[in-house]
Amino acid sequence: MIKGFVFALSALAGSAFAAGGPGVPLDSIDVDPRDKPSLQRGMSTFNQYCLGCHSMEFQRYERTATDLEIPAKLMEAHVVPAHHKIGDQQTIAMPSDAAAEWFGAPPPDLSLITRKRGNDWVYTYLKTFYTDPTRPLGVNNLVFEKVGMPHVLQPLQGEQRLVCTNAPVKENGVVQTDPLTGNPILADQCGVLEVVEGTGQLSAEEYDQVIYDLVNYMAYVAEPSRVSAERIGIYVLLFLFVFGIIGYLLKREYWKDIH
Ligand code: HEC
Question: Average pLDDT over the chain, rounded to whole?
């Protein structure tokens, strides 16, 4: 109970600073824990690009396989690392003190990251790495200033730069349009993110989809029982409704002869 309370408090504190760098509007994401293909793609991206540095210790491979409807044999053959069993938690071998020395900060466990930072923050974070030669790893991030993580998805997204250009005006992340013509309003602005053409394997839309699936997966791991909790919730309400009717009829029966 107390633990739950402390957790709720820390989650609140988390969302308070989850707003990111000053004035940076977050892109919003509508996660869907029922979209199994998206979760499976997200898992595959996570295991390929993130699990080397970040553990997900609260999640066992087996639970993921069951929830995402991946046959255990396939999971063991293609997902679970050789030195792990399917019932194991998703830990990593990288010692965190050495990692802290390499990156300036240890890569944190990501089991609950979307609860700590919020889905929108994580979604925006993964899309706003940009080249910054003043940083040790050559990259910085719009919502995580002086970030210690390399842009591991750069081969997919391409090299992104902060430039001054004539670009659509956005307010709170929404492109503003001319009310008469319906065209986006353009203006000279600085601090606009632009991918250097031909440097990434994916188009902007394809990269967005990869990040959508990845964050969808992380949001699922942060709350793996959400789908079943919602289903049970419906049964509970149905039960209360039916029981309410029976209770009412019973009451009428008991009180029928008392005037
Ligand atoms: C080479 C190691 C490495 C890889 C691979 C890596 N990260 Fe990181 N990540 C880090 C480090 C180090 C930090 C801590 C940065 C800091 O505190 O400055 C970090 C921080 C983060 C954070 C912010 C955590 C916080 O403090 O709130 C998120 C979210 C994150 N990583 C997601 C990912 C995802 C998703 C992937 C896979 C696409 C990934 N990382 C791959 C090293 C890595």
Answer: 90
- Return the exposure string of 119-158: e unless at least 16 CB atoms fall within 10 Å of the residue's CB, then b: bbbbbbbbbbbbebeebeeebbbbbbeebbbebebbebbb
Residue 50 near ligand 1, beta carbon < 6 Å: yes
Measured between alpha carbons, how far is 65 from 230 in angstroms, rounded to an integer?
A: 20
Q: Please identify, by atom number, the ligand 1 atom nearest to the C-alpha of residue 147.
A: 18
What's the rounded Cα separation, in Å, for the pair 255 and 248? 11
* pLDDT tens-digit series, residues 137-187: 999 999 999 999 999 999 999 999 999 999 888 887 788 999 999 999 999
How far apart are alpha carbons 42 and 57 in whole angstroms? 17
Q: What is the pLDDT of residues 232-248, one digit of tens each?
A: 999 999 999 999 999 99
Rounded Cα distance between 250 and 253, Å, is 5
d(CA 43, CA 214): 7
> Which stretches of the chain drop beneath a pLDDT of 70?
1-23
Residue 59 CA to ligand 1 center (angstroms) comes to: 18
